[in-house]
Amino acid sequence: MIKVFWKINFTEDAAALAPLFNQYREFYRQASDLQGAEAFLKARLENHESVILITEENGEFIGFTQLYPTFSSVSMKRIYILNDLFVVPHARTKGAGGRLLSAAKDYAGENGAKCLTLQTEHHNRKARSLYEQSGYEEDTAFVLYRLNVPAK
Fold it and tell me: Is the full-model pTM beyond 0.85?
């Protein structure tokens, strides 16, 4: 049975989740860095900078999503950026991704958020299909811009 939970121990669960987070980064063509993945997750959790929802099956972490809180000045309400969603390949047909999206929606609603936002690559058709099945709509009203800032 697949379970979703979000109350996690900073040190122990960051270490257990790091391999999944590392696989997620590798999916987006980043070099493997297990130690860096663990340190990154631990820092986000210790500094209360994100909320991580985890799915497990038979005691094994099989997926996660990471939510970053921000705010809408116009509506004067909280927004969560659903920044990461990853499910291990062998569990992708079991509904873990949909359960994570549902849990993220519930968490956002319980915490007074106006909405959840996310972005994914255009070619990520499977994820886009899952998002659309879960009620997400492609934004056609706004254009997303990004400025890469060089390190100093």
Answer: yes
